[in-house]
Task: structure prediction
Amino acid sequence: MIATGPRQDLAERLGSELTQLAISQFASDEFKLYFETPLTMDRARFVAIQMVFYNNNRREGWAYVQAKAPWDVKRAIWQHEQDELFHDPRAGSDHRALMSKQAVALGVTEADLASAEATPLVEAVLAGFNHMNASEQWLASLTGAHFLERRNNSDIIPGGAMSKRWRDKIVRELGVREDVLIASNVHIVADVDHSDAIWEAVAGAIFSDYDYQTALRGAYMAARLDRAFRGALAHEMRVR
Result:
């Protein structure tokens, strides 16, 4: 029998697998090394700077996906990226400006921020993200991009997701006030909304087992790159 609409059973199965994969990220060696690395203010500033490059790379990634995706998915991505690129009412700015402000709040100077570069390891991982998003089938790339926000959705990650855990680590280990960490605070909320919205586009594209496998492949690729990124940050922190 030919499917005439999205397969809800496969979408539900995919959603469950993506959630379990997101949870398992925090038990990976790379994530454990990242969160178990003792913080100094210099290390926190370093991560804040590198996250600006990560944010820019996510904008590139979503653009690659949008270029290949069907019309309705292009619209969903456009709505998603308005917060990131133009103005998020939760932040009062776009997200790159927000992350730059958090770096400055931690003591990074405007001059240092303007002259900063991604480290070689970080640059290599970001290039890997771009290669995946440019070369993979659109559904795989879409699900991979969605996965990174599902991994940051504290509504489904026991103990809190990435932004919450990192914010709490800075507060706990460095005594920084929680309200200073404006980018982390906004992403704790925003990525719940973003994850839920894009999931609707992913679920609506699952018509067959082939679609299911394509989407799952994209998530696993993104998860590996996600672990590589955290491992790169952890290494760089430990040599500082």
Remarks:
- The CA atoms of residues 129 and 199 lie 20 Å apart.
- The chain has one domain: 8-238.
- The chain has a mean pLDDT of 90.
- The chain has eleven helices and no strands.
